[in-house]
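Listing S7. Sequence submitted for prediction.
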Amino acid sequence: MSSRSFFLQRESLIGTDRLVLFCDNRVVVKDDNFIWQHKHVIDLLPADTEFLLVDHDGEQFIAAHTAHDISDKITAETRSLRSLLFKESDIDFSIAGKASQILSWYATHRFCGGCGNPTRHHETERALLCDQCNKQFYPRINPCAIVLVVRGREVLLARSARFRTGFYSCLAGFIEIGETAEDTVLREVREEVGISVNNIRYVKSQSWPFPSQLMLGFIAEYESGKIVLEPDEIEEAGWYDIGALPNVPLPGISVAGELIQQYTEEVKAGLF
């Protein structure tokens, strides 16, 4: 547990604090750097700015959101969170991702979802409380399953209309009420491309702040069926040899890239 409150007032900040700033849900950035020293920005923020503690790998950062764009006052710019994902930087993107999720949770739980009364800060936990009906609101994540479907040396890759041109990835979807993650893999593959899979195996997970997801990564083997696209979800899908892949997510950035890399290495090692 942090020794500081998760909800901070301006007067409780200290000179060594490092801030992650958002303006209209965009990150304030200068030269790919989104970590700001307290002394450089604190006097530019509106008096009613609220500050939330962000713990990350044993370090502490402060997240703040303002409706007033201060980027021109500090020779900076605002960028979408997603744009930072592909920037080469020594700063861990997941700091901005976690800050974004905490700010989003805080903004959407200022009032009780049960009775509509204002919530208040929990004194020792990252939670908001309703004194009227005694509900407690903690940050939540949305579990998703992402799967690389494989067939010998081939992998099934797809693209959504939301993807940039020429970019392909794995199939994915939210885990629905009553499902296991493996149930979701079976359903999403069947719904999105019309085929059946088996031998589903878990590989790894990734926090994905778009908006607040936990991606559970799997590899599954093709069982039967022909590709039939769900047009509302998938624009194009096909089988690709591991030696001739299209533009796909990079490992280290996306769990999809990690799945593709792992399976490629397994095939080259003669495991499949």
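Caption to Listing S7: primary sequence and predicted structure tokens for the chain studied. The chain has five helices and 16 strands. The chain has a mean pLDDT of 93.
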